[in-house]
């Protein structure tokens, strides 16, 4: 019997998750299909019951449902509980849900090795994505500074998930912090509104924007023009999907193959 998997969000038509997962399912010979489910805010618990009736194996969860996904689970990992959100649900034999957050390991996989003795990472923004980033980096022992427009949110995030090496500040003063950073992680939604941060000389440091495609294009171009090495969020998207796939099937898929498929798809629609 063909197993059912999927991703739930609102909106969801833009999601590359079906392309990523169906490619892996096909390449690895699994009898399963992966669908996109448009579930409106407020309707997620009811939708989970419907998906149970379809004997779904697992579900990825994106905005705006990650918090409700965690609340709907009978079992949750430490990462999901501390971050306060789940992006992966697995239906258990007793018909309850188990929750995981693969954004944190997906981020670290995309970022690559860090050096707790050398690196100072600036995180722009203090929303849901930033929580996963701070959780991951604090766990790696890296010095980090969270900058946000509402400084209280940055303070709250550092207190909740940071460590003794963590600091915070207001994002309007990012120019005062950026020269001391070895890496800048942009988790903000500025790109959705067409905003671009003007950056100083990068000196071959890394600027990592968690958005991708048209949303991050202008900011990535600004960073590259100033001599930063750049990365967008596509690699993280694939990596967090791979960790979900491993939860469901017990083996890691080919990240490079999925990344190539996503890049080709983005070129086709650009």
Describe this structure in words.
This protein is an alpha/beta fold. Helix content is 42%, strand content 21%. The chain contains 11 helices and 12 strands. It has a 6-stranded mixed sheet with strand order 2-1-3-5-6-4, sandwiched between helices. A 6-stranded parallel sheet has the order 9-8-7-10-11-12, with helices on both faces. A hairpin with a 5-residue loop joins strand 5 (88-91) and strand 6 (97-100). Helix 1 crosses helix 11 (255-269), helix 5 (103-111) packs across helix 6 (128-139) and helix 10 (234-249) crosses helix 11. The radius of gyration is 19 Å and the shape is globular. The model has no long low-confidence stretch (mean pLDDT 96).
Looking at the chains present, what oligomeric state does this protein adopt? single chain
* Series of secondary-structure elements, N-terminal to C-terminal: EHEHEHEHEEHEHEHEHEEHEHH
Outline: globular
What is the number of helices?
Answer: 11
Biggest β-sheet strands, sense, barrel: 6 strands, mixed
Radius of gyration using CA atoms only: 19 Å
- Mean pLDDT over all positions: 96
Q: How helical, in percent, are the residues?
A: 40-55%
Secondary structure: elements and pairs:
Blueprint: E1 3-9, H1 17-28, E2 32-38, H2 44-53, E3 56-61, H3 66-71, E4 75-76, H4 78-83, E5 88-91, E6 97-100, H5 103-111, E7 120-124, H6 128-139, E8 143-148, H7 151-161, E9 166-170, H8 174-177, E10 183-186, E11 206-209, H9 214-225, E12 229-231, H10 234-249, H11 255-269
Parallel strand pairs: 1-2, 1-3, 4-6, 7-8, 7-10, 8-9, 10-11, 11-12
Antiparallel strand pairs: 3-5, 5-6
């Amino acid at each position: 019997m063909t197993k059912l998997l999927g991703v739930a969000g609102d909106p969801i038509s833009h999601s590359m998750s079906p392309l990523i997962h169906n490619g892996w399912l096909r390449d690895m010979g699994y009898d399963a299909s992966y669908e996109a489910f448009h579930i409106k805010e407020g309707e997620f618990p009811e939708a989970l019951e419907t998906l149970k009736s379809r004997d779904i194996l697992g579900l990825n969860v994106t905005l705006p449902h990650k918090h409700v996904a965690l609340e709907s689970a009978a079992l949750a990992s430490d990462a999901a509980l501390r971050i306060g959100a789940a992006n992966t649900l697995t239906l258990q034999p007793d018909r309850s849900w188990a929750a995981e957050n693969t954004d944190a390991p997906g981020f670290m996989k995309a970022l690559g090795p860090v050096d707790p003795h050398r690196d100072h990472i600036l995180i722009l923004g203090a929303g849901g994505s930033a929580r996963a980033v701070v959780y991951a980096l604090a766990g790696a022992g890296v010095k980090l500074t969270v900058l946000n427009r509402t400084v209280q949110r940055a303070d709250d995030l550092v207190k909740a998930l940071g460590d003794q090496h963590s600091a915070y500040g207001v994002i309007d003063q990012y120019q005062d912090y950026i020269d001391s950073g070895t890496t800048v992680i942009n988790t903000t939604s500025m790109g959705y509104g067409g905003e671009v941060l003007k950056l100083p000389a990068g000196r071959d440091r890394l600027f990592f924007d968690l958005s991708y495609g048209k949303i991050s294009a202008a900011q990535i171009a600004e960073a590259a023009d100033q001599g930063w090495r750049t990365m967008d969020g596509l690699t993280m998207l694939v990596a967090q999907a791979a960790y979900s796939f491993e939860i469901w099937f017990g083996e890691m898929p080919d990240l490079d193959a999925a990344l190539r498929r996503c890049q080709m798809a983005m070129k086709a629609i650009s």
